[in-house]
Amino acid sequence: MSLGELWRKFRWGMRSLRNGELLLKVGADKFYMHIMYLFLLMWLSIMLSLKVDKALARVGDNKTAIEELRIYHSQKEAQLVRLHSASAAEKRLRELGSPVSIPKEPAVIIKKK
Amino acid sequence: MSQKQREIQETIENRDRIHVVMFFLSYAFLFLGIGILVCIVRIQTSYDVDNKVIGLFRPSSVLHVEHPVRGRILATDGRPLALSAPLYDIYMDCTVRKQYYKESGKDSLERDWRKKARELAGYLSNQFRDKSADQYANAILKGRDNNNRYLLIRRNVDLETLKLVKSFPLYKEGPYTGGIIVETHEERIYPYDSLARRTIGYVKDLSRKGLEDSFDSELHGHEGYEWRRVTDNNRWVRDLDSAVVAVQDGNDIRTTLNVDFQDIADRALRAQIKENPDVRAGICVIMETKTGAIRAMVNLSRGDTPQTVLWERENLVLTERGEQGSVMKTATLLSLVEDGYVKKLNQTLPTNNGWVPNWRRPGSASEYPHDDHISDYQRQTGRRDITVMHGFEISSNYVFAQLAETYYGKRPQELFDHLYSYRLGEAFDFDIEGLRAPSVTRPGTPAWSNSTLGTVAYGYGLSVTPLHVVTFYNGIANRGRMMKPYLVESVEKDGKVIKKFVPSALNESICSPATADTVTRALRAVVNTGTGTRLKGAKLPVAGKTGTARVVLPSGQYQDAYGRKKNQGTFVGFFPADKPKYTILVTVYSYLSGQSFYGGTMPALAVRDIVDQLYALDEEWRPVLHPTSSVPVMNSEK
Questions:
Q1: Do B317 and B171 share a structural domain?
Q2: Which of B177-181, B213-217, B364-368 comes out lowest in average pLDDT?
């Protein structure tokens, strides 16, 4: 192909593009459905990708929330357990001026004969 | 020149041109190759690659390591003895927005920030109560003037407090305006503080002790790995295209320890020893007779100086190997009864004024020290013979040296075979590492002398740990079946048992049940009429033996130049004596002291206190009341 011929084709292409007739002139209208299908697939792919990212971000947030709850539960449990010993109870009762203390005798069981 | 010759000439010229081109091309490639090599060497050695270039080659995903949550250590009833949770350190970047306010030329913004900082200081002071509001304000404002980007506000804050602090003025505006910096660190929490602390152990960086160390492989769990990428919204999410290794949190271990028993034993022991500055340490072990499960293990010690507070510093139950003194007379008595040498406890032997006759060289001086107990006995009773039972009750060294010499003098190995069968000659497998092996002076070894047999018979020349002693007494309480002591009963995952440790025996039969009953009778007599009378009248009948031993000093002597001694007093026994449920040992160790410590005093009193409190606690001993009449039914309609 000579340079003159190449220049002619370039000018034809630019003119067709300006007139909005390029795709028709190259016969792309035959593949219109395929092109639309391709666009649909691309749109779907992007949408799904964004949805997945959003879901994963939510998973991360939930994990953080669960972890925070676990930490809160552990720390609260440790605080409660500290109070759950005979010594701690006795000390607290003494502080409150209560006459109640650790039992000296075991509790009596009442049973029917 | 003919046409053909011209063509040949042109061909030669063409070929020469090709040769020249090829020649230059080959050299060009050669120089290019050398250039590339130089570049490679330079890149590898000195070239500093631009970060933008590195960024282009770096994968968009980064590896994230997820650390497992360390498993819990639980008491037998499920109460946590150790658990993990993060704590937070709060710092402050005092320079936050300072430059921006300055450049914007709005002094009001800076004034507003400082006003909020003073307000924040008030809240911080009110929350932590460690500094005044002015002190906090001065620290923050001085930090702003001096461009301090890392001012410590408070260490080890829990999540609840952190959330509260984040809602304070200035801090609630976030890190880019408030300057709050939070650093997280995983902490191991021991809710009962010093209670059983040496048994539970600790974990700090790479250092571990106790159960935390022995069961680290179960408690630690496995790290998880996942690749993460940034989304278009600048959020880090998991990269689904890469492999994931899920994090596995550590398993929980359920111990045999009973928090109430531990608490009672700890308090009873403290009550006995805290006021006496000569006491270096005190230990207590409570073992379940039938299973060998350890329900309490107390290790209180003061450390090097008497001024320091009592704390669980070292596991003396496993490591304090020493001559146990008279508590080992029970092992001699058990052997004598089992071998049939002592058929009845009222069998008598001559008192010999408290001197063991030298049968190897008749007429020569005794190889044993004099026993003053026998002189007292002779003076009080006027008798020249003594029963085995009474010798045991008053803990006479003479009686046991004499019995050993009489019956095992010619075959000492026979007695030592018994001691080995009681596991008093070797270490055994235990849930915490560090159980010391006993030290035994055996017949035929260089350390063996003519008096070794008798001294071993009354508790010297044989060094064992307190765990060995309590395991042996538990064997008697269990009528000859010596159980292996254990501390961990199961490994659990989310409350489900995945590994169960069942009780096992160290020796199925150390003696016949009849022998065990006979020795139990002797042990009851010690409490009723012997050296352990401080336990007489305890709320549950106790059978046991006292032991008072002097500790060998580094000089090899039992006392220093000033006559001061290191003593250890022990009481070991079981209760209720007629149907044993628990075996208990309490030992008290002294510093170098002029004071004497006996097993029948502080240790026996501690045991009594423990027995009385356990009696009130255990359901098994609850009295049953049968109603004599029924309660009338109250019905308003009738």
A1: no
A2: B364-368
Whose CA is closest to B571, among B553, B580, B583? Answer: B583
Against a cut of 0.90, is the pTM above it?
no
| Position with higher pLDDT, B373 vs B556 | B373
Q: Structurally, how many domains does chain A consist of?
A: 1
Give residue-wise pLDDT tens across range A51-67.
Answer: 999 999 999 999 999 99
Residue A113's pLDDT is 66
* Average pLDDT for B347-366: 86
Confidence (pLDDT) at A53 = 92
Chain B nearest C-alpha distance from A99 (Å): 18
What ipTM goes with this model?
Answer: 0.73
> Which residues in chain A have Cβ-Cβ distances shorter than 8 Å to B625?
108-111
Q: How far is A36 from chain B (nearest CA, A)?
A: 26
- What average pLDDT does this structure show over B129-137? 94
State which residues form the domain around B113: 103-178
d(CA B208, CA B87): 20
Which residue among B220, B238, B255 closes a domain?
B255
Burial of B186-205, coded b for 16+ CB within 10 Å and e otherwise, reads: ebbbbbbebbbbbbbbbbee
| Structural contact between residues B539 and B615, judged by C-beta atoms closer than 8 angstroms | yes
The answer to whether residue A65 is domain-embedded is yes
Structural domain contains residue A103: no
pLDDT in tens, B286-345: 999 999 999 999 999 997 777 788 899 899 999 999 999 999 999 999 999 999 999 999
One domain, residues B536 and B548 = yes
Total domains present in chain B = 3
Cβ-nearest to B80 among A77, A111, A112? A77
The amino acid that residue B48 corresponds to is D
Same-domain status, B299 and B429: yes
Q: Locate the chain B residue with the closest alpha carbon to A109.
A: B624
For chain A, the distance separating the N- and C-terminal CA atoms, rounded to the nearest angstrom, is 119
What value does the mean pLDDT take over residues B221-249?
Answer: 90
Considering the domain architecture, whether residues B236 and B347 belong to the same structural domain is answered as no
Contact between A74 and B189 using a beta-carbon 8 Å cutoff: yes
Contact B545, B507 (CB under 8 A): no
Is B320 found in the same domain as B360?
A: yes
**B51 located within any domain:** no
Q: Are residues B514 and B595 in the same domain?
A: yes
Task: Check which CATH number belongs to the domain holding B512 and give it.
Answer: 3.40.710.10
Nearest to B615 among A70, A85, A106 (CB): A106
B290 and B208 share one domain: no
C-alpha span between B269 and B429 (Å, rounded):
27
